[in-house]
Amino acid sequence: MTRGDRLLIVALAVACLLAWPIAAAARTSGESVEVSGPAGVTVVSLSEDRVLRVTGRTGELTVVVERGAVRVLEADCPDHVCVKTGAISASGSVVACVPNGVVIRVGGGDGDGLDARIR
Amino acid sequence: MAMGSTLASADALSARMTAPSRAVALGAVLLAVACVLGLIEASLPALPVAPWLRLGLANIAVVVALAVGGLRTAAAVSIGRVAIVALATGTLLSPAFAMSAAGAVAALLAMAAAKSSGPRLSLVGWSAAGSVAHVLGQFAAAALVLGTGSVLVLAPPSALLALVFGVVVGSLARVAVSRIPQG
């Protein structure tokens, strides 16, 4: 590794750390789950356990809200990255199934993961 | 092995590789290596912390191609591998393919820029830049395909991990280049 390499690596690392939202450290638990996909958008509360069947581009996903967190239980997709991502509960966190075009986002709480909302 | 001598040996190899048949042969071998590495890696378990990320071992071949064969050879190895794997797995023209292709193109541009900045950067630097660009390109494509930027929150930590992988890949590529016989 040359000195230039080291400088570049440090610069890239710093850029990543700066881009990382500072809110991530002060993340609050979310209140609602927004599931958006080709079939539409559904918003449900995180406080009530339920099972959602979501229709995606390549098949169906089974989304489970349980104990204040949401995760994908099963999905019709090649790699199951969405299933492997596991449960999320922090405001602003995301689980996505790209082949199906489905995004699950946790919102609400103090931060909502957003810096500002224009109404 | 000292950094300068790896680049020097790569340049010497590069000079001998200018014959078109040799360049094609080199590209073909590295493309095959990239495909094999990609398949091996696909059979490895995903990272628990970031299951959407891969080590990118196949890019060892791309970085070697860039060092010894130049940008065109590297592009052939990179794009060729993405296309062949997509054909083999039946994912050609799918969102996953769009992400792979976007990542591969972004990585090539970043590595070409790194290489053209001169001897200040070695293969490790090229690979580090390429790896970060790759992940950012994939996230950009994913955001476009999904129609929302909400996945971008995952980009900074992913890019940081990719940076580490890029250093590993670049180091392995450096070792590979140093072992190519000069004679």
Describe this entry's structure for a reader.
The complex is a heterodimer of chains A (119) and B (183). Chain A is α+β, with helices and mostly antiparallel strands and 119 residues long. Chain A is globular, with a radius of gyration of 17 Å. Chain A has helices at residues 3-19, 81-85; strands spanning 32-37, 40-45, 50-55, 60-66, 69-75, 94-97, 102-107. In chain A, a hairpin with a 4-residue loop joins strand 6 and strand 7 (102-107). In chain B, helix 2 runs antiparallel to helix 3. The longest helix of chain B is centred in the C-terminal third of the chain and has 25 residues, at 155-179. The two termini of chain B are 18 Å apart. Classes of the chains: A alpha+beta (119), B mainly alpha (183). At the A-B interface, helix 1 and helix 2 of A face helix 5, helix 6 and helix 7 of B.
Protein traits:
heterodimer, A: 119 residues, alpha+beta, four-stranded antiparallel beta sheet, three-stranded antiparallel beta sheet, 7 strands, 18% helix, 35% strand, B: 183 residues, mainly alpha, 7 helices, 75% helix, globular
Topology diagram in text:
The complex is a heterodimer of chains A (119) and B (183).
Chain A: H1 3-19, E1 32-37, E2 40-45, E3 50-55, E4 60-66, E5 69-75, H2 81-85, E6 94-97, E7 102-107
Antiparallel strand pairs in A: 1-2, 1-7, 3-4, 4-5, 6-7
Chain B: H1 3-16, H2 20-42, H3 59-68, H4 71-89, H5 95-116, H6 123-146, H7 155-179
Overall pLDDT metric of chain A? 87
Quaternary structure classification: heterodimer
Structural class determined from secondary elements of chain B: mainly alpha
Biggest interface in this structure? A-B, 31 and 39 residues
Along the chain, the helix and strand elements of chain A come as HEEEEEHEE
Q: Give the overall shape of chain A, derived from the CA principal axes.
A: globular
Class by SSE composition of chain A = alpha+beta
Number of strands of chain A: 7
What gyration radius of chain A follows from the Cα positions, in whole Å? 17 Å
- By DSSP, the count of extended strands of chain B is 0
Give the low-confidence spans of chain A: none
Distance between the termini of chain A: 51 Å
Integer-rounded radius of gyration of chain B: 16 Å
What's the number of helices of chain B? 7
Measured distance between first and last alpha carbons of chain B: 18 Å
Taken as a percent bin, the fraction of beta residues of chain B is under 5%
Percent of residues in β-strands of chain A? 35-45%
The major sheet of chain B is characterized as: none
